[in-house]
Amino acid sequence: MNKTITIFILVFAFVGGFLIFYNPKPVSNTQQNWESKTDDQPPVTVTITPIDILPESKEWKFNIVMDTHLVELDQDMTKVAVFVDDQSKEYAPLNWEGPVGGHHREGVLVFNAVEPMPKSVEIKIKDIGGIPERSFKWNLK
């Protein structure tokens, strides 16, 4: 009987301590799967997926995949891409983390975070594969 009470108290203390000290991290957008947006106008398919567009982040990052078999993808992504907020203000990228050319090109386009947090974000890319402008938009709120 004494062992049963001791085991019960230990289990109760363990469960109680776990519930008191367990602090789950809130789910943030970095844990969400942002929707990929694709523009497949020939001869190049471009797909963009937000990686990090959290209000607390200092930089916002977007994964960009370009795929073709017909043209060289050697554009300077920091010159052909812009970030547009919900007030139509445009922001130039900080940098491109990826290859310079090829037919299959993937990298990360990095921007300064925008404050206050916009209701929507848009990436515009100009002159890829002869298309004057491609637009990719996400609603945030």
Lay out the secondary structure:
Layout: H1 2-21, E1 37-39, E2 45-52, E3 59-67, H2 77-80, E4 81-84, E5 90-91, E6 95-97, E7 104-112, E8 120-128, E9 131-139
Number of domains: 1
The fold-level CATH name is: Immunoglobulin-like
Distance between the termini: 58 Å
What is the alpha-carbon Rg in Å?
23 Å
The CATH superfamily is known as Domain of unknown function DUF4426
Secondary-structure arrangement, i.e. CATH architecture: Sandwich
CATH class: Mainly Beta
List the uncertain runs: 23-31
Oligomer: single chain
Structural class of the secondary elements? alpha+beta
Large-scale geometry = elongated
String of helices and strands: HEEEHEEEEEE
Number of strands: 9
Enumerate how many helices there are, as a single number. 2
Q: Key features?
A:
single chain; 141 residues; alpha+beta; Immunoglobulin-like; 4-stranded antiparallel beta sheet; 9 strands; 40% strand
Q: What would you note in describing this structure?
A:
With 141 residues, the protein is α+β, with helices and mostly antiparallel strands. It has one domain (34-139): Immunoglobulin-like (Sandwich). It is built from two helices and nine strands; from the N terminus they run H-E-E-E-H-E-E-E-E-E-E. It has helices at 2-21, 77-80; strands at residues 37-39, 45-52, 59-67, 81-84, 90-91, 95-97, 104-112, 120-128, 131-139. The strands form two sheets. A five-stranded antiparallel β-sheet has the order 1-2-3-7-6, with no helix packed on it. A four-stranded antiparallel β-sheet has the order 5-4-8-9. Strand 6 (95-97) and strand 7 (104-112) form a beta hairpin. It is elongated. The N and C termini lie far apart (58 Å). The relative contact order is 0.19.
